[in-house]
Amino acid sequence: MSTQAETLEFQAEAQQLLQLMVHSIYSNKDVFLRELIANASDALDKLRLEAFRDKDLEVDTSDLHIAIEVDREQRTLTVRDNGIGMSRDDVVSLIGTIAKSGTGELLRKLKEASDAAANELIGQFGVGFYSTFMVADEVTLVTRRAGESTATRWSSTGQGTYTIETVEEAPQGTSVTLRLKPEDAEDHLHDYTDEWRIRHIVQRYSDFITWPIRMEVETRDGDGGTKREIQTINSMKALWARGKDEVGEDEYREFYKHLSHDWRDPLETVHVKAEGTFEYQALLFLPSHAPADLFARERTRGVHLYVKRVFIMDDCEALLPDYLRFVRGVVDAQDLSLNVSREILQQDRHISLMRRRLTKKVLSAVKDMRANDADRYRTFWTEFGQAVKEGLLSDPENRDALLDIASFASTHDPEQLTTLREYVERMKDGQNHIYYLTGASRQVVESSPHMEAFRAKGYEVLVLTDPIDEMWVDAVPEFDGKPLKSIARGEVDLDAEEGAEEAEGERDEQREEFAALLEWMTGELGEQVRQVRLSSRLTTSPACLVGEAGDLTPTMEKVYRAMGHEVPRTKRVLELNPSHPLVVGLRKAHAERGDAPELSEVVELLHGMALLAEGGEVADPARFSRLLADRLASTL
């Protein structure tokens, strides 16, 4: 029996919005079931809280649950809960109006937005209930508020009107029944009476809802036949909401594998629980192997966002910085909207606070791993170190923490990596800089002429061979008060570093002896180099090329050109070893024969040799080979 039936029209703007919903604003229509289950879960939460507050409220809270009922013949799907329910006024206020505020603004933005952006905007204005009209020709809601005797029925076909009436008998809680549209594969409209499809949606979006989600399913009996029985189809195992001492390692491992689809065990588990004005829990995992798309332009991240245990999105880039994109896990916030969009997440102050804390927790876990388990840390850094070092460029707030956990190859040990802290502890007395050299490989760096004096005098040099190393070293000026210095840039004077003042007089004499040669060679190579000068970094090689502080390295020039950027070619400095026989002989020959053509060819060869020694390329390989062959022939 029903009374007080009314047929009402949606407001003009609401009609337009409803039509947009019907015509697939959501790219994934499965989310309608997520929305209904989320609403049901909220209703159960509210009833439990209300029963706790109001001791006079006569309600049964012994079996709170969500039920999904399917009628394949009638093609209906019902989501039912025995939660708090709604009064008639609640229905008019909450269900009878689409997006009570902001509807016009949403419509304007939808008209301006691309198809990809439209889905994000829908979530922003809280109209998730109306996603049901994407899959249903008619939606009927029956609800009775706890403590009231009468119920309310609301129904609509989504064609501009809705009917609302009071009914005398209905169970406490809310049921939403959808008369489903026909299946349409082209429009991504699935058969939502199919048991497998419903299970799949529940497990993807609502598996960790606190309340049991029950459905009648088909099972096999002991005789090999089939029977129908009611089963709970969600796990309700929200590991992140349980204390660390309540969860076993096996449970963590199985959850990680379910979440990440990785058959290997995680390397580390990070449990976070924040209480106060903004509550959330997080369960994060550091994998033991890097994903294949770690450095791909189109890559996925592994942190899933839940709100009150309702799945919201599985690629939530707002929760962790890009250099931690390999982290897998779940973040469950208590105070966010279920319809939160990526656009909102990027601007939300609470999300920013979560991101900062989660980042610090992950970095702290890596630091503890380095201190307490060298083997696991070594695995982590081998797999993810190159990505983590991106944070030295992009995350100045955590730069000190990143420098603390970073490890680098160095000349101290050909096998073991070193931290900057360990490097500083080993520095020679009077050493003021942390020395490094970048290159394509350890072999290239180790054989570089720039290393000769440092090797001879026992100075440790960091061997940086990752592409990102070329960039972060310019962004990090110092560590623990010690400036970082490239041994391939600027002038290097290790004698002065060691306080050997007597060497200065010898260098002054050499500069006088070689002044004419240096001036002439600078003129000869004016198109290729900025200057020719004597070197204090060479012991066995005749020459090397060095940049000045602030210059782009040859590698970075190549990177920019590969990206399509036009950058001017940097002229570098050619440094000569005044003790090398070739350089000594060239000085004598120049003093005797001036600018003879064959001497100009020797200068060209000397410059080409310096380029090749650092792994570079000569401008004209054929000419270089011919000149070298002629010079060799003349010595026989």
From TrEMBL:
Residues 559-636 are annotated as: C. Residues 1-342 are annotated as: A. It comes from Saccharopolyspora hordei. It holds the Pfam family HATPase_c_3. Molecular chaperone. Has ATPase activity. It is found in: Cytoplasm. Residues 28-184 form the Histidine kinase/HSP90-like ATPase domain. It comes from the Bacteria. Its main location: cytoplasm. Signal peptide: none annotated. GO terms for cellular component: cytoplasm. ATP binds at residues 35, 39, 81, 86, 100-102, 124-129, 174, 342. The keyword Magnesium does not apply. Residues 343-558 are annotated as: B. This is Chaperone protein HtpG. GO terms for molecular function: ATP binding; ATP hydrolysis activity; ATP-dependent protein folding chaperone; unfolded protein binding. SUPFAM superfamilies: ATPase domain of HSP90 chaperone/DNA topoisomerase II/histidine kinase, HSP90 C-terminal domain, Ribosomal protein S5 domain 2-like. InterPro entries: HATPase_C_sf, HATPase_dom, Heat_shock_protein_90_CS, HSP90_C, Hsp90_fam, Hsp90_N, Ribosomal_Su5_D2-typ_SF. Homodimer. PANTHER family: HEAT SHOCK PROTEIN 90 FAMILY MEMBER. Keywords: ATP-binding, Chaperone, Cytoplasm, Nucleotide-binding, Stress response. Belongs to the heat shock protein 90 family.
